[in-house]
Amino acid sequence: MSRVFGRVFSGIQPTGNLHLGNYLGAIRNWVRMQDSAECIYCVVDLHAITVAQDPKTLARGIREMTAALIASGIDPERAILFPQSQVRVHAELAWVLMCTARVGWLNRMTQFKEKSGKDREGASVGLYTYPVLQAADILAYKATHVPVGEDQKQHLELARDIAAKFNNDFGVELFPLPEPVIEGPATRVMSLRDGTAKMSKSDPSDASRINLTDDADTIAQKIKRAKSDADALPSEPAGLAGRPEAANLVGLMAALTDRSVAQVLADHGGQGFGQFKPALAEVMVAALGPITARFNALKDDSIALDSILATGAARARAIAEPVLAEVHRAVGFGDWL
Ligand code: TRP
User: pTM score, two decimals?
Assistant: First the structure.
């Protein structure tokens, strides 16, 4: 990634294991951006508790996500990596921004509608205000670029609206308007069982996804059994129309080998899945093997992980606390403390 970014911020929930969809859709971009910008990556545990969590599982999830991010290539010496709850500015700024955001804006958020489902009255208030906390995450660092998946576009629009209204209401140029960075050929990695559904940690079928903890045999088996069709691969992308499973597998090959779909089809067009799938499994195992090995070596080293997170939180505070002080001055809280 040769583009130059200002300051990058992104967050990921510490619930569930990382899978190939997270890795190719988001984390790989996070890793690449470390070369061209100051990067701040946050394990968003405050967001996690907007739905019920078992405390012990959550505590383990925070460390495991940290280990998975480092195993994927996040370098905690260069990037700032920390848990959201350890930097109190997030919650405090969220309150101020809740007074900037409008109820009408939140009522339009599609993720709340999906997550609250039929029982909207029974959803937590935190789930409703989730996107305002997300805006606070980004704006606390005056971040300019936010690498996210497609599904977060609407939340980023909201963060921009909140930043603009805050600046306007108080006549300041405090917050830059953050831009989403949605990139990569496999931004949307689909389920291996259904090419029209997103690969997801909550799919009851483990065969639908590749976990970053799957070993080589498991990966090979899952690719072998992945849904496909009886036709040979086309030699051009147009031939994938109406073939969601074929498109997904070809897209995975493209993402894993850093080629375009057209290039993959130029090489593999005419092959049936009996030939293509083993080739795909091979590149997947080669890409994920080292990540899995690093993850397994780190995941139970809670002393090392906790020390990385504490250092990250201290570095994050050093940036966010002065921003909150500016916010206090802008709204009239004063700064005499
Ligand atoms: N809502 C994001 C997701 O579900 C996670 C997130 C929280 C985030 N805070 C953020 C992403 C700030 C980008 C920036 O994927």
Answer: 0.91
